[in-house]
User: What shape does this take?
Amino acid sequence: MADEVAIERFTPPPRDETDPPPPSSALIPKRPLILRIGRKLQPWVNDLIVRQSKIGNDPFPDRRHFPWMPMIEANADIIRAEARRVLQDLDQVPPLASVSPDHRRIAPAGKWRSYFLVGYGYRHEPNCAACPETAKLISRIPGLNSAFFSILVPGTHIPPHTGVTKAFLTTHLGIQVPLEREKCRMRVVNRVVMWEENKILLFDDCFDHEVLNESDETRIVLLIQVKRPVRLLGRIVGGLFLAGVKRSRFVQDARRGVHSWTPDP
Assistant: This one.
């Protein structure tokens, strides 16, 4: 499914004067008190969820725990056809840094674009209507948290970062993968993986990871986040934490941004 090499950090592509500003924490608005409290609680919650996990704490969990994955892979051609239709003009797809202020720390301006179907349980109805078969397929996934087409244009570097919570795991279904696969890759801890069309890559995004597309082609995946299988206490605590995140500015700002975003004239 993926090639592996040992590596520490990616070298970002060189910038020139025409490039937009690089991602930076300075671009993020000051977090409200409730988010700062959540940030303090995050390590404790993650530690409890790991101890309650039914599948261990590997950066790349065993996909056998997720029997819905073959169903998604078997329908990859259907998903790809809908993705190609709605993503014909990427200027009509919002950059993540534009719709989600909290992602400006890692999202290069204009380069990492996201076509949301579901975000933290909230369906984006116009996009689901435009991708009806994909919307039906993801509705069959148990514990679905988010699902969206994640687009990385050539020259995109997403710097090292970690996810929000161990309560869910992330999968990428390869929709459009550059021919030079080795030039478009993701590092998770000290392993580098590359996408494969029609195949799902499963990983825990709470481990340090980064992404680089130094090919001449755009990479597109269907990114799906699902709940981690945990025991009862982990479900309760993880559920409460996710409920707080869902109602936080982190999610609500992004939700409003997706609904109100319009492309530049």
In short: Residues 162 and 239 are 19 Å apart (CA to CA). The domain at 33-260 is CATH 2.60.120.330 (Jelly Rolls). Confidence is low (pLDDT under 50) at residues 1-6.
